[in-house]
Design the sequence.
């Protein structure tokens, strides 16, 4: 088989949504809403089919190229200026295939949801245009052979997001808010353009090969800064809030794809960033998470929760890439992206069912009117927070393993701090999403008109359910995509296309027959925090009155309001630019070898308290006279009470 | 004249003029078909002839030459830059004919004048010696002023004539200096020629004619004037003998001045109250970018800038359609046009996309190439300053386009505006602007194939 086929199929997958968006530009209004939506859905399905064909072609090749061999690279010179090596084209490898499958399927499901969402809106053909633009750009980013093309794709994705968020004929304020998205696109593009300029002068081009070799600090910082703007690194994370005015479906895609392009860039440069750049990226990610997580928990609008969840997913993935390497980062990113998209599509399905009402103050008690949507929402949340064996659990486990390995290899207060990251983030995600779920579906009917007009849409919850099933299935070890990610040898050249053709690689098809899949051992901690989440939810549900009473006090109420409105972020933006650099420099200084040695022991022990408690309990029971069969249950019970109590404390504080 | 007609280049350049004559003598309805055929034939010839003609080692399609006096030579030639720019001109000529399709009453005026201007512009683009370039630019300026005058826009014609007269005087002095054949005089000639061309393009503070030309006449008039002036000027910059050898000491200063003008232009666009002013700001900004490219010695990047100038021209056309329907193009009094005029929105949005120098637009390619050139050629603080100014300009440019698009197309319609259902664009207007935007988009997506053949 010729190596042209994977490239051709991927290009077709990119072209189909583009063509339909181009058709809608002059003829969308005449075609009308249902037809333009149906056409977009068909284009989305065809695009998925092309991507899957490309994946099969890539996996099935036994020649020099293909899975385990060399990537398929077809490029052309974009600007043939003297000695400027700027190329564009197609680069198909395992990461490109896996990410293209995820992006195409999520985009297709979002399009289906948008068909349900905008059936009665005469102007919604423009939303399908922006969806087509975002889908094409996202897919093209997956198969990009150069930083230049990734830059272009990220810009165009945000352009689509700007169109969606800005276009509302009746609200000038919304149009003004949406403009921030395009400014962010421009800012990120400028930083990456400077990185391209430096790369061209340093290495003669911006190809993935040029990105794979160790790069100077300056170039690395510009790449990180440009990527960070799109991912939502501090101080750029505020732009995600600007996506809230967009309709439900495009909001999901616009929240996910810019970060996805940023993650692709980070994955491609993961092997070449130096330690200082990585440290800066991790510190900024932690600061961003520190700001986003409280805002997520105290959020009072489902529409604003969607981009915040997207930001959290990408920030965790960025930490995984920077600290765990490209392969771990790819696993974490793709599994979280899958499960996160299921959650976000579920939220969009709720938004569609309530005809665009997204404030928690107007939702509530919808369980009887939206039973299926509620179930899909709950299932998606469980997938994201890492219910064992399903959804993003493999990603969380991979992240935990990588961070623990890092902490033992390079002890220090930062690595010790990071060990607790997966537990903290999953718990806070569980709290925030469970809160959103319960405020939406349970309690009293807060707004009678919303309650009266709320109605299930088969297409909407079908899309959300399909996303949930997809996220659940794709994370399994026996599924080709998961094996594509996890069974790859953990070598750096997997992502930088220097794999020798003679390298023996187990193919996913062979994996099904020959390789015995070892079931991952589920520790008591995993069960414990899973049940702890349920306990916390119950406490939150039944203890709502207590929490409200606490929150009615002036100080907590003021704090919560500040977090909700993110006004504190504005103050930070004003005060921080100079201080941030000083803080980053100070942090980098503290992370040197001497400081690490001094603080390693104390920091590591102090930040492993949640895990340590359960481990100590386990050790104590091992030493006691309890029968072996009952030991696990005792650990489970004690652990769940401890984790649940911890979560409950966090809930009350929040 | 023998050398002119005996060679394909001369024949190609004369084709639009012959078509203009035929249009003038033909019945009204037949005239537009003759005009379309003439321009299409010209474009076809520009595309095909270089494939079959003999090309020398420098990839030039040499034309004949005449020695007028000692040191004064008239010569036409087609190198890659001339090839790209002449094709751009040919395509714009087709668009101009399409834009005047439904104006049989003014057919002769609207078709004959732009085609005559196209003839002179092609001669100017093919000119390869200083004397030929000066003559070509003079003829083009005269035809541009004639276009404005024939459209009844006397103030705009006067402004353009005055500015271009200054430019022509400087150019003639430059030719005279160049005849002395001594180093200092040659340097003076180069600098004078450069200043003359930038004055002609509308470098601040002599850019008043740009705004008035953008506000003058119908679509065809604005497009013709702006296109022929910009493309012929850039051709002169790119093809001036010696390609503007700038002293090393002057490079960094010139680049900083150019980048400052770029920032100045986009800042003006971001605070503009009218769509025309936004377009003028973008135009001035691109002129600043051209100055940086001249300083960095990037003639091929100038071709990308020539394609990027289509974006402000497109905005000027959009301003004209808004002005025709509402009597003004004041951003503070507009809003919600995306629903009131969907066809206008369909062409305005790609124009905004191109004007914002988005990836995929020639503006992006030109900006990136200029940044790479600046980083290579200019060292130290000057290089960093130039890069920073260009990067800052890129962000401000986005701000300007976001603001214009939001105020003009999004949001609600103004309550005090009685024209809640204004007429939308006609099919020939959509077709014309679509071709123009497609040219720019293709030039941005595949600049290596379209604008820089064989380079």
Sequence:
């Amino acid at each position: 088989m010729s190596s042209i086929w994977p490239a051709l199929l991927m290009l077709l997958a990119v072209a189909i949504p583009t063509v339909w968006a181009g058709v809608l530009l002059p003829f969308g209004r005449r075609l009308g809403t249902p037809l333009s939506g149906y056409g977009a859905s068909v284009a989305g399905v065809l695009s998925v089919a092309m991507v899957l064909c490309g994946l099969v072609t890539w996996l099935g090749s036994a020649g020099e190229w293909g899975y385990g061999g060399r990537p398929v690279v077809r490029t052309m010179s974009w600007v043939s200026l003297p000695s400027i090596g700027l190329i564009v084209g197609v680069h198909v490898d395992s990461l490109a295939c896996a990410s293209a499958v995820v992006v195409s399927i999520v985009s297709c499901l979002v399009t289906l949801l948008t068909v349900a969402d905008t059936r009665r809106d005469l102007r919604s053909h423009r939303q399908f245009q922006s969806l087509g633009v975002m889908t094409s750009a996202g897919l093209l980013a997956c198969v990009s052979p150069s930083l230049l093309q990734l830059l272009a794709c990220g810009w165009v994705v945000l352009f689509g997001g700007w169109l969606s968020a800005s276009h509302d004929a009746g609200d000038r304020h919304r149009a003004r808010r949406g403009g921030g998205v395009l400014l962010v696109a421009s800012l990120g593009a400028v930083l990456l353009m400077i990185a391209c300029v430096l790369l061209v002068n340093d290495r003669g081009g911006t190809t993935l090969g040029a990105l794979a070799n160790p790069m100077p600090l300056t170039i690395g910082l510009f790449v990180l800064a440009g990527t960070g703007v799109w991912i939502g690194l501090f101080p750029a994370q505020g732009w995600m809030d600007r996506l809230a005015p967009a309709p439900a479906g495009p909001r999901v895609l616009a929240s996910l794809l810019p970060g996805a392009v940023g993650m692709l860039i980070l994955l491609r440069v993961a092997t070449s960033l130096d330690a200082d750049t990585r440290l800066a990226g991790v510190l900024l990610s932690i600061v961003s998470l520190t700001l986003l997580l409280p805002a997520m928990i105290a959020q009072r609008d489902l529409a604003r929760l969607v981009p915040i969840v997207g930001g959290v997913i990408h920030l965790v993935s960025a930490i995984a890439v920077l600290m765990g390497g490209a392969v771990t980062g790819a696993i974490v990113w793709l599994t979280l992206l899958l499960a996160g998209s299921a959650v976000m599509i579920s939220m969009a399905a709720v938004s569609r069912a309530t005809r665009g009402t997204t404030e928690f103050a107007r939702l509530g008690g919808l369980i009887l009117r939206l039973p299926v949507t509620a179930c899909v929402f709950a299932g998606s949340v469980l997938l994201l927070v890492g219910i064992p064996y399903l959804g993003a659990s493999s990603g969380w486990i991979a992240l935990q393993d990588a961070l623990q390995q890092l902490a033992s290899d390079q002890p220090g207060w930062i690595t010790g701090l990071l060990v607790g990251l997966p537990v903290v983030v999953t718990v806070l995600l569980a709290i925030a999403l469970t809160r959103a779920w319960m405020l939406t579906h349970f309690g009293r009917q807060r707004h009678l008109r919303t309650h009266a007009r709320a109605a299930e849409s088969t297409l909407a919850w079908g899309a959300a359910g399909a996303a949930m099933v997809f996220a659940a299935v794709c994370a399994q070890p026996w599924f080709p995509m998961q094996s594509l990610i996890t069974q790859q040898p953990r070598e750096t050249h997997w992502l930088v296309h220097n794999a020798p053709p003679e390298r023996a690689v187990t193919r996913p098809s062979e994996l099904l027959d020959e390789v015995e899949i070892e079931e991952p051992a589920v520790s008591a901690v995993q069960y414990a925090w899973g049940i702890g989440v349920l306990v916390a939810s119950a406490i939150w549900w039944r203890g709502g009155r207590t929490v409200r009473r606490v929150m009615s006090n002036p100080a907590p109420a003021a704090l919560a309001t500040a977090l909700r409105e993110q006004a504190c972020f504005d103050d930070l933006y004003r005060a921080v630019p100079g201080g941030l650099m000083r803080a980053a420099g100070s942090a980098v200084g503290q992370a040197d070898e001497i400081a690490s040695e001094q603080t390693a022991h104390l920091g590591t022990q102090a930040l492993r308290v949640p895990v340590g408690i359960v481990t100590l309990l386990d050790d104590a029971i091992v030493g006691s006279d309890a029968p072996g069969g009952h030991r696990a249950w005792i650990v489970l019970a004690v652990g769940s009470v401890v984790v649940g109590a911890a979560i409950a404390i966090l809930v009350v504080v929040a | 004249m023998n050398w002119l007609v005996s060679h394909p280049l001369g024949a190609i350049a004369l084709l639009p003029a012959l078509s203009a004559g035929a249009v003038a003598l033909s019945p009204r309805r037949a005239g537009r078909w003759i005009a379309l055929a003439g321009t299409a034939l010209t474009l076809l010839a520009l595309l095909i002839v270089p494939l079959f003609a003999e090309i020398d080692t420098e990839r030039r399609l040499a034309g004949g030459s005449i020695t007028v006096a000692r040191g004064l030579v008239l010569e036409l030639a087609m190198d890659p830059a001339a090839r790209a720019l002449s094709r751009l001109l040919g395509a714009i000529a087709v668009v101009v004919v399409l834009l005047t399709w439904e104006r049989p009453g003014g057919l002769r005026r609207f078709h004959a004048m732009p085609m005559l201007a196209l003839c002179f512009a092609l001669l100017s683009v093919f000119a390869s010696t200083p004397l030929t370039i000066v003559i070509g630019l003079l003829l083009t300026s005269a035809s541009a002023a004639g276009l404005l005058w024939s459209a009844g826009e006397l103030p705009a014609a006067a402004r353009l004539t005055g500015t271009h007269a200054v430019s022509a005087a400087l150019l003639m002095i430059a030719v005279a200096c160049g005849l002395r054949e001594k180093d200092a005089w040659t340097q003076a000639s180069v600098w004078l020629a450069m200043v003359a061309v930038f004055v002609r393009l509308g470098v601040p503070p002599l850019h008043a004619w740009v705004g008035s030309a953008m506000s003058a006449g119908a679509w065809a008039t604005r497009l013709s004037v702006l296109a022929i002036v910009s493309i012929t000027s850039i051709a002169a910059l790119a093809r001036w003998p010696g390609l503007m050898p700038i002293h090393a000491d002057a490079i960094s200063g010139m680049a900083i001045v150019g980048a400052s003008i770029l920032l100045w232009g986009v800042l003006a666009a971001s605070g503009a109250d009218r769509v025309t002013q936004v377009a003028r700001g973008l135009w001035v900004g691109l002129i600043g970018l051209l100055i940086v490219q001249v300083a960095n010695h990037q003639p091929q990047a100038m071709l990308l800038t020539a394609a990027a100038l289509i974006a402000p021209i497109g905005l000027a056309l959009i301003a004209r359609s808004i002005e025709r329907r509402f009597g003004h193009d004041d951003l503070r009094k507009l809003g919600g046009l995306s629903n009131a005029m969907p066809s206008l929105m369909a062409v305005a949005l790609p124009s905004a996309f191109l004007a914002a120098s988005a990836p995929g637009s020639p503006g992006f390619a030109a900006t990136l190439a200029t940044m790479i050139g600046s980083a290579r050629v200019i060292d130290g603080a000057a290089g960093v300053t130039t890069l920073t100014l260009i990067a800052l300009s890129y962000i401000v440019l986005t701000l300007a386009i976001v603001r214009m698009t939001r105020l003009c197309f999004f949001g609600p319609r103004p309550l005090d505006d009685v024209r809640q259902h204004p007429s939308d664009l006609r099919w020939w207007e959509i077709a014309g602007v679509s071709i123009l935007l497609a040219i720019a988009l293709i030039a941005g997506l595949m600049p290596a194939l379209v604008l820089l053949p064989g380079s």
Summary: Chain B touches chain A through 48 residues (CB under 8 Å). The longest strand of chain B covers residues 61-69.
